[in-house]
Design a protein that fits this description.
The chain is 71% helix and 0% strand. It has seven helices and no strands. The model is unreliable at 20-32 (pLDDT under 50).
Length: 139
């Protein structure tokens, strides 16, 4: 009995270590999803500019914007929140005011100036996010 308990304890420890290693070195699915969505928004904005960045999204037709996925990009990324507030409200584009991205973006920024936030965040931005910033903000 003692041998069986000892074996089970060791097996449990090995299992816990393996799970810990797998979790530590696996890419974060949420972060990967955000990156993919930013790339889609960039591709859309590159084609249609400000109108495409700020328009109401429709995933079923392949229309991606900062307003996609109920404005989640605006609540998950301070950079996107600032960029959307700066670009889509000056002047207002495509009924952006009051959208979920507008509301969530305002909350994410907490009263900070959108342009200041974008310029600060641009210093560490890479890939599609940096490309998206450069489409609309002189750095």
């Amino acid at each position: 009995m003692k041998s069986a308990n000892s074996f089970l304890k060791r097996l449990f420890v090995v299992f816990a270590v393996v799970i810990g290693i797998v979790v530590q070195f696996s890419p974060a699915p949420a972060q990967a999803g955000i990156t993919d969505n930013i790339a889609k928004v960039y591709d859309s904005a590159k084609v249609g500019g400000k109108q495409y960045l700020c328009r109401k999204a429709d995933v079923t037709s392949g229309t991606f914007s900062v307003r996609s996925f109920e404005g989640e990009l605006c609540s998950n990324s301070r950079t996107i929140a600032g960029l959307s507030q700066y670009v889509c409200l000056n002047p207002e584009v495509a009924s952006f005011k009051g959208s979920q991205c507008d509301v969530k973006g305002n909350k994410k920024l907490g009263g900070a100036d959108p342009l200041t936030v974008v310029k600060e965040e641009a210093k560490s931005a890479t890939g599609s996010l940096l490309s998206l910033i450069k489409l609309f903000v002189p750095l």
